[in-house]
């Protein structure tokens, strides 16, 4: 089934955005250029990172016990490059994420705390043409995010214990997905590419070839801009946007 035509709300109507991803650096690969535009426009953006990325990295002799602290610090630095200062780390184990009721509850908690008008997440559908973006943690986190988006976050009878804490139901209304196999919306991020690249380079523990990263990212983003019909030499990030009626 094809996704509907994108109909995102104008950015001028958005005050707060929450981005939910599986690993530190996921948001920077998928959407940091767009987030830099949002924060520049005065939109408050918060991050929710589900795992600490313990299974990431390329150094065989690194003490794996150090990785959670390393990756949280890298993500915090990366976020600052694109104007984000509110980060929620859930601390799940890298490689073991499932869309459990516990994870959905924790995402609903963050949604009700942040009260965003736009939710940015990953795709629960596997992209066979780019399998690397469909890591099992991405799929599981995305599925839990969609369940939190609808119906749980906006249902006062879902997770009544959160209501009892004063975290009232909140309808986000708009879901943006990265890495979905059927993009229906593109954002021209030519002007914020440098900030996106700075965010990506902050994840030093993840880049065995940092010198080659800029050209690789630029190539992907040029392909997206071409697909969107943007002018030559422009760069874009692709999304799939879903709005609740």
TrEMBL record:
Keywords: Zinc
Keyword Transmembrane helix belongs to the record: no
Keyword Zinc: yes
Gene3D superfamilies listed in its UniProt record: LmbE-like (3.40.50.10320)
InterPro entries, per database record: GlcNAc_PI_deacetylase-related, LmbE-like_dom_sf
Name used for this protein in its record: PIG-L family deacetylase
Organism: Kribbella alba
